[in-house]
Amino acid sequence: MKKALALMLTVSMTALAFPAFTQAEAKDYKIAMICDSSINDGGWGAACYNAMVAAAEENSWTFEVTDSIAQNEYYESIVSYCSLGYDIIYAPGNQYTDAVLQAAEEYPDVAFALLNGAATTPDEAVNGNVTSLLPNAQQIGWIAGALAGLMTKTNTIAFIGGMELDTTLGKYQGYAEAAKYVAEQDGREVSVLDPVYAGSFDASDKGIEFAKAMMDNGADVFFGDASAVDSGARQAIDEANKAAGEIKVFDIAQPADILGQNECIICSQVTDNSAMISLCMKGVEEGTFGGETIYGTLQNGGLSAGAISDLVPAEVQDQYKEYLQQMMDEKFMA
Predict the structure, then answer these.
(1) Cα(183)–Cα(175) distance, integer angstroms
(2) Helix (H) or strand (E) holding 232
(3) Number of neighbouring beta carbons within 10 Å of residue 169
(4) What digits encode the pLDDT tens for the residues 27-55?
(5) What DSSP state is assigned to residue 95?
(6) Which residues of the chain have pLDDT under 50?
(7) Interatomic CA distance for residues 134 and 297, integer angstroms
(8) How far apart are CA 327 and CA 287, in angstroms?
(9) Residues 128-146, buried b or exposed e (16+ Cβ, 10 A)?
(10) In this predicted model, what pLDDT tens digit does every residue of 258-287 receive, in sequence order?
């Protein structure tokens, strides 16, 4: 089995080097991102785009993006950049896997970085030119779930997904188990509503609809993996809080720290995708890219919790930070 790489550790070479990426002389490198959500969505699309920009600027690469594309446009959008000589195609989501693998077979000299790609996906690339960037979905869920379990007053929390992806399910499961665990430590029992899926990442109206229905079912803390759908949910939550005259329904954002964007946000789960993208860039420059999975975890700095709102009482903040430390020390729920 190939050795999976930790995010901030030295990248090992694969058993078979990939000579197509060896560079005889300096060149101008280019990376392109495709995305089915908007890079201005204040959520997933924006965070993934900003990560690419940060990595590109750090490594002096040129960058480009095509966003808000439909599923039937994935492959064509990727191929258009391949034909223009881009060195890396960055696809931020498991939903792009089929299109990436098809293009990777047809363009062996192009590198493909698949965020949230399965650990098995690099082995499926016949030319060895695909790397999966895989933040730990369980830990992402834990970061949100622990705070949700501490903050819920109704003992009912909710989760909204964009698509039924393996990574989204992993986040939901981590969210649910962490929330239930911290509540049990306090002598309470938390109920997690069944996850709902919008079938896309840009249907903000679905987020509004879902949030209203889940608040009607008693949910007072939300977490999501749905980009613009999450934005719609926050809109509905803010409106409900305004009507109630107080902020009593909360949201935990991801994957960037966006505290202050909506009144209901009490914290964010933060993923440092830029570091993983940067490793891919260095692999291309050094001729070692491909065939690996780069993991992002709490332990190596790939994942973290963002700033905490003053809506979270000081004693709850202390409890939450203690649970985060347990996660770091690999003692959470142990």
Answers:
(1) 12
(2) helix 228-244
(3) 16
(4) 899 999 999 999 998 788 999 999 999 99
(5) G
(6) 1-24
(7) 9
(8) 35
(9) bbbbbbbbbbbbbbbbbbb
(10) 999 999 999 999 998 998 999 999 999 999
